C-alpha cells in the first residue's frame, strides 16, 4: 500500500459514518478513531474529564504511596532475613563453566547429601569442563543445607551449587 492509497482511505473513512477503523497489512498498521468521545468539545464534558482525572490521579498517587510503604516493609524484612542467613550460611559457587556431577560415577553414591557434615578438603562434586573432570573441594567446615543444582545440569561460573551452614 502506497501513501496515495493511504490518503484516499483516510479521506473515505473521514467522510463516512465509521467511528473506528483498523487495518493490518504485512508490517503496516493503520488505525483511525473518530468516536464522539474523542471529538467532543463541550466545556461541560472537558470539565468533567478534568475533575475525573484529578480524582483518578489522587487515587493512583495514594495507591502508589501505599505500595511503596508495603515494599519498604518487605524490603526491611528481606534485608533482616538476608543478614540472618548471611551470618549462618555460606553459598558455594561454581568456579567454572561445565556440567555438574554429584557422584564420581553413574552407579556410585553422591559425594555429599543434604544433612552431611563436611570438612575442609572434602570433595563436594565434579564439574566436567572440556572433557576434564574437576573435583570441587570444600574450603570450609559445615553441614550441607541445600544442593541447588541437579545432577547433569550445566552450570556457569559463579552459579550457586551448595548452601552450607558453617560449624
Describe the protein's architecture and organization:
Helices cover 37% and strands 31% of the residues. The radius of gyration is 32 Å and the shape is elongated. The strands form 3 sheets. A 4-stranded antiparallel beta sheet has the order 3-10-8-5. Strands 7-6-4-9 form a 4-stranded antiparallel beta sheet, with no helix packed on it. Strands 1-2 form a two-stranded antiparallel sheet. With 167 residues, the chain is α+β, with helices and mostly antiparallel strands. It is built from 3 helices and 10 strands, in the order αββααββββββββ.
Order of helices and strands: HEEHHEEEEEEEE
Quickly give the structural class: alpha+beta
**Secondary structure tally, helices:** 3
Bin the helical content. 25-40%
Mean pLDDT: 79
Poorly predicted segments: none
Quote the beta fraction. Answer: 25-35%
Gyration radius over CA: 32 Å
Sheet with the most strands, sense and barrel status: 4 strands, antiparallel
Which strand order spans the largest sheet, edge to edge or round the barrel?
Answer: 3-10-8-5
Q: How many extended strands?
A: 10
How far apart are the first and last residues' alpha carbons, in Å? 73 Å
Rough outline: elongated
Amino acid at each position: 500500500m502506497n501513501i496515495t492509497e493511504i490518503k484516499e482511505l483516510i479521506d473515505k473513512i473521514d467522510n463516512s459514518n465509521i467511528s473506528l477503523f483498523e487495518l493490518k497489512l504485512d508490517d503496516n498498521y493503520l488505525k483511525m478513531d473518530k468516536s464522539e468521545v474523542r471529538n467532543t468539545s463541550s466545556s461541560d464534558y472537558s470539565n468533567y474529564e478534568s475533575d475525573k482525572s484529578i480524582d483518578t490521579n489522587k487515587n493512583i498517587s495514594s495507591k502508589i504511596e501505599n505500595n511503596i510503604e508495603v515494599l519498604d516493609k518487605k524490603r526491611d524484612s528481606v534485608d533482616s532475613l538476608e543478614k540472618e542467613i548471611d551470618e549462618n550460611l555460606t553459598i558455594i559457587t561454581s568456579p567454572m563453566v561445565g556440567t555438574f556431577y554429584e557422584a564420581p560415577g553413574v552407579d556410585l553414591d553422591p559425594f555429599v547429601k543434604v544433612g552431611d557434615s563436611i570438612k575442609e578438603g572434602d570433595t563436594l562434586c565434579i564439574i566436567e569442563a572440556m572433557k576434564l573432570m574437576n573435583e570441587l573441594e570444600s574450603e570450609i567446615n559445615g553441614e550441607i543445607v541445600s544442593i541447588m543444582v541437579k545432577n547433569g545440569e550445566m552450570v556457569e561460573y559463579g552459579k550457586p551449587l551448595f548452601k552450607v551452614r558453617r560449624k
